[in-house]
Amino acid sequence: MLRYLSAGESHGPCLTAIVEGMPSNVKIDIDYINHQLKRRQGGYGRGGRMKIERDKVKVLSGLRSGKTTGAPITLVIENKDWENWAPYMDAVKRPVDDSKKVTAPRPGHADLTGVLKYHLDDVRNVLERSSARETALRVAVGALARQLLTVFGISILSHVVSIGNVSLDDSQYTLEDVARADDSPVRCICPDTERKMMAAIDRARQEGDSLGGCFEVIAKGVPIGLGSHVHWDRKLDARIAAGLMSIQAIKGVEFGRGFETTRHPGSKVHDEIYYSPDKGYYRSTNNAGGIEGGMSNGQPIIARAAMKPIPTLYRPLNTVDIVTKQPTPAGIERSDTCAVPAASVVGEGVMAWILAGELCIKFGGDSLDEMLNNYNMYNKMISSR
User: Fold this and answer.
1) pLDDT digit string (tens) for 53-98?
2) All residues at 6 or more sequence positions from 127 whose CB lies less than 8 Å from its CB, including other chains
């Protein structure tokens, strides 16, 4: 079973993850992980923190000579901003003063619920861990997973389909076009829509506001049969949805045509099945988004995630001070105007992690060779049906 635990605060010394269950003999390229981390830090609408951090991963265990050993893998990403925050965020020493204490919780953030749940008197104890800075680790462990998926011919892509009230028309692109997303500052593959998205972000920034949006993640080359219909917690779409929903600020997930299917009769929704000797079973449409009955059906898996606007506003909303109980403007932390392009990269990492875990369950083994043998035997069985 593939799993990981992460630790670390936004302004602490580092972020750490321990990955367990990665089979041995998988080649790992550290530069590839760092490339994915760099992609997460890009995107039009990002804030000042991205000018400070230049995320790079250190591997402390589980790798030797560039290959996994089967032992737990320890990943560390240092926070460069720790130098400025050490007097206030030390794990043992008391802060030098209260200048970084936060008592004005932000509406829409974990702030108030967190201090009430954990019986705290400083919102910083909540916001440091709930910060989206944590997603750097998700991209790092996702980049590990992607290098396992590549061996099995699985690739992950993403792009932004809306920011604010500016949306990409589905008729404007094909799956092949999505590979160009990194050429765009907002990761949108239509130049005209890109310009409108950037203009919307500029307006929001000038107004001290923030914008959300929607991104699409696509997994190609996924074999038939990952996930299962037999238990609720083994359904592939449920696991992917849970992973995407766990990304900070994500409020909705859909697969394929998703919510749109509710507006059409079944005859216009379900993907008809065909057979030919050279293709085997196939479908000419993919309205289901590559998953039927909780299992991958061999078509590209297509998931969309909706991201709400970031809660930190430079023209803050009203809140209540948790000490004085008096009305006050919400606290302001250094933040982005729009992080949807970055969230799409995080979504790729999450999709990769879930699929790698399912791959290990389906074709499980302690080594990559064992997994490949099981995978090849399964494909021969499928092709003979």
Assistant:
1) 689 999 999 999 999 999 999 999 999 999 999 999 999 999 999 9
2) 10, 102, 109, 110, 111, 114, 333
Please name the residues in contact with 187: beta carbons below 8 A apart, sequence gap of 6 or more. Answer: 43, 158, 159, 160, 181, 215, 341, 344, 345
Phi, psi of 141 (to 5 degrees): -70, -30
Q: What is the pTM of this model?
A: 0.95
Domains of the chain and CATH, by start: 3-383 (3.60.150.10)
CB-based contact 73:26 (threshold 8 Å): no
